[in-house]
Amino acid sequence: MSLWTHTEAEAATGGSATAPFAVTGLSIDTRSLRPGDLFVALKAARDGHDFVAQAFAAGAAAALVDHVPEGVTGPCLVVPEVLAALTALGAAGRARAKGKVIAVTGSVGKTSTKEMLREMFDAFGSVHAAEASFNNHWGVPITLARLPAEADFAVIEIGMNHPGEIAPLARLARPHVAMVTTIAPAHLEAFDSLAGIAREKADIFLGLEPGGTGVYNADLETSPILAAAAGEGALSFGLRGTVTLTAIRQTAVATVAEADIDGGHYLLRLADAGPHFALNGLGCLAVARALDLDLALAAQALGRWRPPAGRGKREVLLLDPASDARATLIDDAFNANPASLAAALDVLAATQPGPGGRRIAILGDMLELGPDEIALHRAIADHPAIARTDLVHTVGRRMEALWQALPQSKRGKHVAQADDLGAKAHHLVHPGDVVLVKGSKGSYVSRVVDALRHLGHPLPEEPTGE
């Protein structure tokens, strides 16, 4: 079944097709393009028009362009401006959608919560959700343009770096339910306060469909800002929320949360996840409540979610097969700000090392924190979980402030670049250790994760039985 025909795409964008076409998908990158895709020739660091011929060679069914590149003979949809046409195609995709649309934003946990919602909705019907972290002025239109008209649910992630970005994307998505996961110090280079971040995130509620529902975290200093923006009929989650957290405990393999909703008691078990994920899970239950879904089934479905690589995923490193020497890696290297780092350190502190093992943190710079960035890094030394952490290795000039503030006994290695630590990976981990790796994407601490993984040996398949 086609996603867009040339006549539908012409009507949506006002463009003109050089030949009839029908596409089954949409791509902005020839490296991930699939046969049948519409290739969108966006202009960024490179001009996508330079890759149109390559896209057709890879199987593209058509290309969205502002001019037909020399030598290209495949069907092209010619428009005045490609990004504007992509946005119009996204708006048309949203307009024809028959299912419920849910939008998610927040300083921390957007992508993980989006994936939780994908898992939850899968128990109730067909789900379309944003790919990876497609949450900006390109990603949201792409997600909507890819939205199958017959999908029962669509989950749209919305992010921002600067003021004024959330509202137009929310109005484009037109969600039936909009959720704010949390407000934390992130992107402080562009905002003067947490209140400013909260007001920007709360703009997601401006896009709600008539009768739509806002969902927000009730336990924040900035919750009153979110509540006022969400308006009448909003739902909240947390210790003081409509979806009320009544108990939480962490085991060696899972976090278990208990919640009360409208007098009913529900159990949420998240395997391989820390307590901070449980709060996002409660937010998902609030979304289910807003859509009148079976809450017990929703909680059960959320239990099938696992943190992806780079976002708190736990894995076992088999260091020596002969002696069965193992270590535990907590890969949280995709992003970081003070709130998410504090939560990750709490997870490390609550994780029991093996015999003779240590709790080790490998921390890279937190970026985009504004003029107080050095003080915010130094303040991590005062977090209670540091007392239960045996050794802290740091990467980057900002994290050096934390390293200097640590007691001498907890100071590991400090290096300027992640590769300098990755080269020493074989000295960083001993049998029984639990190792957390956390940092902003731009700190490249994910390279340390890769180096640690290379120390391990593949674990044998567990017998599944009959």
Automatic annotation (TrEMBL):
It is an enzyme of class 6 (ligase). GO terms for cellular component: cytoplasm. Transmembrane segments: none annotated. Residues 326-440 form the Mur ligase C-terminal domain. Pathway: Cell wall biogenesis; peptidoglycan biosynthesis. The keyword Cell cycle applies. Keywords: ATP-binding, Cell cycle, Cell division, Cell shape, Cell wall biogenesis/degradation, Cytoplasm, Ligase, Nucleotide-binding, Peptidoglycan synthesis. It catalyses: D-alanyl-D-alanine + UDP-N-acetyl-alpha-D-muramoyl-L-alanyl-gamma-D-glutamyl-meso-2,6-diaminopimelate + ATP = UDP-N-acetyl-alpha-D-muramoyl-L-alanyl-gamma-D-glutamyl-meso-2,6-diaminopimeloyl-D-alanyl-D-alanine + ADP + phosphate + H(+). Residues 23-68 form the Mur ligase N-terminal catalytic domain. Its EC number is 6.3.2.10. GO terms for biological process: cell division; cell wall organization; peptidoglycan biosynthetic process; regulation of cell shape. Pfam families: Mur_ligase, Mur_ligase_C, Mur_ligase_M. GO terms for molecular function: ATP binding; UDP-N-acetylmuramoyl-tripeptide-D-alanyl-D-alanine ligase activity; UDP-N-acetylmuramoylalanyl-D-glutamyl-2,6-diaminopimelate-D-alanyl-D-alanine ligase activity. Residues 104-288 form the Mur ligase central domain. ATP binds at residues 106-112. Its main location: cytoplasm. It is found in: Cytoplasm. Belongs to the MurCDEF family. MurF subfamily. Involved in cell wall formation. Catalyzes the final step in the synthesis of UDP-N-acetylmuramoyl-pentapeptide, the precursor of murein. This is UDP-N-acetylmuramoyl-tripeptide--D-alanyl-D-alanine ligase.
